[in-house]
Amino acid sequence: MALFDPGFSTCALCGRVLNEDDDLVATSHFITDETDPLWRYSDALMHRACFLVWESRQDFVDKYNAEAVDQMLADGTLKPKPFWREVFQWMMRRET
Ligand SMILES: [Zn+2]
């Protein structure tokens, strides 16, 4: 996860300094391909307000959800991926 140094770290989208009470979107370094146009936004911090109006937001969310272990909602909130599939598979194994 990107380091957050309030008063010094800057938003990857607008470039303004981030403050401790700002609502932020942050991800791990989930894009390793430096030629990917979204690469510089992985392992970065962004104001949620900037993220919500970012033209690449949906591409970023889709890529995050394809690569990362948790799930990103459309507003940048991170949640554990649904585990129903694992539960279903566990139940199927018990029946055989
Ligand atoms: Zn910003």
Spatial sequence of strands, sheet with the most strands: 1-2
The ligands bound in this entry are: zinc ion
**Main beta sheet:** 2 strands, antiparallel
Structural class: alpha+beta
* N- and C-termini, Cα separation: 41 Å
Strand content: 5-15%
Mean pLDDT: 89
Order of helices and strands: EEHHEEH
Q: Extract low-pLDDT stretches.
A: none
- Count of helical regions: 3
Task: Give the arrangement of secondary structure elements.
Layout: E1 24-26, E2 45-47, H1 48-52, H2 57-67, E3 70-72, E4 78-80, H3 84-95
Antiparallel strand pairs: 1-2, 3-4
The structure holds zinc ion.
Task: Please provide a brief summary of the model.
The chain is an alpha+beta fold. It has helices at residues 48-52, 57-67, 84-95, and strands at residues 24-26, 45-47, 70-72, 78-80.
Tell me what you see in this structure:
It is a single chain. This protein has 3 helices and 4 strands. A two-stranded antiparallel sheet has the order 1-2. 19% of the residues are buried. It is of the alpha+beta class and 96 residues long. Bound molecules: zinc ion. Zinc ion is lined by residues 11, 13-14, 16, 46-47, 50. Zinc ion binds at residues 11, 13-14, 16, 46-47, 50.
